[in-house]
Amino acid sequence: MAIDSEKLNKEQKKAVMRDKGPVLIVAGAGTGKTTVITSKIAYLIEKKKIKPEEILAVTFTEKAAGEMTERVDALISESYADLWISTFHSFCERVLRDYGLDIGLAADFKILDETAARILIRQNLEKFNLNYYKPLGNPGKFVNALVSHFFRCKDQEIRPEDYLKFAKTAVPEDKKRIAEIVAAYKMYEKLLLEKKFFDFGDLINYCLKLFKERPAVLEKFRERFKYILVDEFQDTNWSQYKLVKIISYPKNNLTVTADDDQSIYKFRGASFGNVLQFKKDFPKAREIVLVKNYRSFQNILDIAYKFIQSNNPDRLECINGIDKRLVASKNGMGKVLHLRFKTLDGEAQGTVRKIVEILKSDKDANFSDFAILVRANNQASIFSRALERAEIPFQFLALRGLYSKPAVLDIISYLKVLDNYYENSAMYRILNLPFFEIPAEDIARITQYSSRKFKSIYESLQEMILIPGVSPKTENEASKILNLIKKHSELAKNKNVSEVMLAFLENSGYLEHLAKNSHGSLAGNNEEKISHITQFYDKVKEFEEKNIDPKLKNFITELALEIESGEEGKLDFDINLGPDVVKIMTLHAAKGLEFKYVFLVNLVDKKFPTIERRELIEIPNSLIKDRLPKGDWHLQEERRLFYVGITRAKKGVFFTSAEDYGGAAPRKISRFLAELGYTSEIQSLNAKCRTKLGINSPKYKLQNTKYKFALPDHFSFTQLAAFEKCPLQYKFAHILRIPVRGKATFSYGKSLHKTLLNFVYQSTDEKCSFGDLLKIYKECWIDEWFENKNQRDKYYLKGRKSLENFYKKFKRESPEIYLINGKPALEQNFSFRIGKYSIIGKIDRIDRTENGVEIIDYKTGSFKKKVEAGNKTQLLIYQMAAEEVFDLIPEKLTYYFVDEGKAVSFLGTDEDKEKEQKKIIEKIKKIKRSDLRATPGHHCRWCDFSGICEFAENNLH
Fold it and tell me: CA Rg, the chain, in Å?
């Protein structure tokens, strides 16, 4: 059964089962929008027998796409090779990788975000010939504005030539300025093409160009996708909407979910008008309104509804004549209060006292049931300090700010020192790292000596013997730091940044310090630090992929340009993970979340709503393709943001404000509070309620803040193998994703895998010579993690010889590669169920045989004449996937050992598969109930984490 109809209300059922034509689902806050869209996908697959790969579902973040995939996967019993659930940008990237060549685009393009685009312009500023937008005192002032402008133009599918036409009609005083914008836009596009870069707008617009100029390609996608679903439709821009309209035609089986009252991303290019335009484009579209709210009490919903009415007549409710008033499914009354204070400090303390009061009265409330929502990041610190003084655990969850996280600052500081020994502030931070255990008084003696002698801290460390009063232990630690810097400076000359970063984390003891505590597991705070390190490592790897010379100096230069441009580093977080703490976040970050109690703070004039900040370079109205609102769009968007804040609350919403924020005159309350009927009267809280909760009391012991982490919903052979060796290894690798030092064998193996994939793929279309194979090998070679040039050259020659053997065998046997959906079955993804668990993976190659297929997995290890029982698991999983997902009949399962050009094959019997399924189910059950403790043994010597694991067998003696 794909969906449990008993769990869907009447309107949700209508939305799910409407399987013909365009559908607009107007889904208010808390009405189960995601449930509806995932249930509809499952309904189409299970009941209407639509193949999973014939449905396209798009949303706006990778996280949302992942969650949607998991929910659909849990609803369907069908196995699948491909679920097209992705972001707009991921979808378009996939299309262009496959078909971009049809319009002259290189398939090996790299993707540029807004920050990288700013850096690209800064690095090529002299080519832009700016005058109006290049003040002498600050040449880069308008770079950010230009990039934002170009991105917004692409959201509207405005090309440089469109701008040029407009320039001819501009008033004389504007012509010169507009001509400069057009020239800059053209130069930006030229740089992108030269360097094979696509920005996010390009991904959409090149897809539109592809479909316009190559109708046969468009027809393939129209044939493939029987249904298209768009989540959060109110967040689409003009180009994205045009894209889904083109693909869905002529069947127009297009379902969109939207709530115009939650459209809060105009600054990111979202077109509020798309929701209003949908009914004009599809006049026969079925409109289904979801109003049954499963989150909040009715009085909270009523105050939100009353408030948002001020955006009329530009709301969908007025334009389409529908009723969007939300109806609570829960009985009861929520708490709705305005708390007014004398000062900002009083507001912060009063907010904390209210949290304490509720915690004491609501016996079921936990810290994580509370959210303090701020309009801007800089408003959070006062509330953080108040919670800290009250001994209440908290977490500030920002969308940006990775580069200012303590662990990331530590790494950046060390990399800066390697680049420049005279970076005193960075060196000072290194001395203060806790695992070096240098006393504060010794650090003071070092810095005083440095200042007195006019020397850098680094130079002072070299003269430790001359600094009076420093302990022998500190001298020893200073020597250790100097040796690390010397060693890693040498490493940085020849190795990529990621290798240098990991060398520091390992050699210094940083990772070991984070990985250990008295209980032998990771503390919550350390897990958060590891998450930040992993995110920064991903950023470093991204830099390496985009740069020809990914060395330390270039990375430090690019990072400095990023920070100079205002970039703070994107942060990923999952509200359901981490410790049980009070959450502080911006209203934008809170969209899609829910809490028992919500505090909307700093509700005074000019703080919320904010003063409108116009873009430095605005798109002329005559070029804008959006449908523009009649009213004040900025005020309307701020009002929608406030509405989002109110509708996050389940049981209580508290508005707070103060008179004194440090200015000369008292602050008036926000106009939004006035619209709700509140006044500036000062409130008083229960004087008997102490601000400090005392989290060491029985109810609020510190262990209640234990870190929560998510176990995967999908399991692969690699995950299962890691868990079987050691549950703690599994946790390090697949849950915390701790970065690990690579190995020469990994770089070599990945290089050969990628080479074989590209060669076999090209060979299906054209004849490829051995010279072509060597060219592919050179392009695919991963030049990382080799100890030295000699080792690298040996591996490269070994690979060349292996490929020569492979080429001879491939040409001699001329295998026929099996086609799936018209494409060669190479690195073929799959997902199927064993019991109630999802198994995922990727098959290297599937060849057609006389009566079925051969499943091939490439190996670069030493050849084994016989496949032992314990080594059959991977190919048995592939055999089950081939049968379940692709409806194939495997005749042979083969490990192909590339280095020796030899293969070993077998075929699993029904008994083999049944035994393997039972083993896999039992293993996953163990993962689900395991506390992921270490199981030391001889395998520790090959474990990537043995150096940081206190339980590793080699560390126990």
Answer: 30
